Amino acid sequence: MRATLRKAAVLAAVLGGALGLGSLGLSHAAGADPRSAQVLLRDQAGQAVGVVKLTQEEEGKVLVRAVTHDLTPGFHGFHVHAVGHCVPPFTSAGGHYNPGGTGHGAHAGDMPSLLVGADGTGELRFKTDRFSVAELLDADGSAVIVHAGPDNFAHIPPRYYSTTEGTYGPDSVTLATGDAGGRVACGVVR
User: Fold this and answer.
1) For the segment 121-145, what is each residue's pLDDT rounded down to a tens digit?
2) Which of 85, 87, 112, 179 has its CB surrounded by the most CB atoms within 10 Å?
3) How far is CA 60 from CA 36, 129, 132, in A?
4) What Rg value do the Cα atoms of the chain yield, rounded?
5) CA 42, CA 54: separation in Å to the nearest integer?
């Protein structure tokens, strides 16, 4: 009963505009203002598990606000991915948004981890200057992904040795993904 009430409270907050989302008309019409975008996160079964709002601010930063529910408690990697396509298992969204070709931790789409509480809900709010809303809406679009596990942001000390690649420090998988695991939720930036 308590979990149902918490889920209802999260949904009411989102639908009631606590994030400033207004109505959840989640599509950008041609010629629409590219200063804001919304993302409806869905799990692999197609169930809505959260909403993300991206707002372009005057000083060149994007305010990112997320509210989630029905996710596994703990830290989850939370990234913008390069393709606006979410077909389970969400590999259709491509890799992390990374126009600069940098290693993980410095990808434009790398964002702070999402912490989900014991009740399955999470909230996240931060600002970034690594991308603009207009950039995320261009060309193939983009998607926001919630990963199954925590993101290590490629923070592997050089004393650790990768036997699979014969290198010290982060291996190629860590540099590409942060070892955040599978993709549990995805939403197209609109």
Assistant:
1) 999 999 999 999 999 998 779 999 9
2) 179
3) 13, 6, 8
4) 17
5) 17
Using CA atoms, how far apart are residues 125 and 14, in angstroms rounded to an integer? Answer: 14
- Contact between 158 and 169 under an 8 Å Cβ cutoff? The reply is yes
The residue ranges of every structural domain in the chain are: 2-18+35-151+182-188
What is the Cα 6 distance to its own chain's centre? 22
Nearest to 142, CA basis, from 129, 151, 128, 132 = 132
> What number is the average pLDDT over the span 40-54?
98
User: pTM for the complete prediction?
Assistant: 0.78
From 169, 113, 103, select the one nearest 146 (Cα to Cα).
113
Note the pLDDT of residue 154: 66
Q: What is the rounded distance in angstroms from the CA atom of residue 138 to the CA atom of residue 151?
A: 26
The answer to whether 36 touches 58, Cβ cutoff 8 Å, is no
Give the integer Cα–Cα distance in Å for 90 and 142.
Answer: 12
Q: Which are the contacts of 190, defined by CB distance < 8 A and separation ≥ 6?
A: 26, 27, 28, 37, 38, 39, 84, 137, 141
Section 47-60 average pLDDT: 96
Angle at CA of residue 101, ends 99 and 105, nearest 5°:
100
The pLDDT > 90 percentage for the chain reads 58
